[in-house]
Structure formats: structure tokens, C-alpha cells
User: Fold this.
Amino acid sequence: MKRLYQHRGHAIDVSVEAQCPAYPTQDNPCAVPDYVALLTIYSDESNAVPMQGPLRIERTTERVFASEAEALMGGFSEGRRIVDMKIESNERSRQGTA
Assistant:
């Protein structure tokens, strides 16, 4: 699953991969996969040059992502947080030099 989102003039590309747990058993090699979000952030909506990434997001809370949709939204939330922090940092830098 892959989605491209727009946030504050940036493009946030999130894709999801399923992975088996770290310690599968012989009886249960991979019955319930965990999901991982792969996140790439572009500085503009042209998607030409990545600003950040790809980043591997395994969780945004204390537990792993239980579904593709949860990983997709978790990756998007993390991408928005990174974009917001970058924009706010740039604004503070400009205010400090003005």
C-alpha cells in the first residue's frame, strides 16, 4: 500500500510493508505480521529531491502497527510532525536573524 499526501507545501510519501515478528516459532512462522511505514518527505510537491528519508517507522506508540491502514496513518502523522518541526525551526531562524 502506498499513498502520497500534501502538507504545508511538502509531499509526504508513505508506503507500507508487512514483516514477520522478530522471533517466529516453528509452529507459527508468521501467522500475524507486523506492519512498517516507509516515509520519504519532499521539500515541495514536485517530488524531485527528497528532503528527508526514506525513514522506517515501526511504531508511533508503545506497540507495533497491527494493520496496513494503521501503519499508513502512523507514517503520515510522523511525516506531518517532521514537516511542522522543520517549518517552525526555519521560522525561528529567520526571526533570530531579523
Notes: The chain is about 30% helix and 35% strand. The radius of gyration is 16 Å. The mean pLDDT is 86.
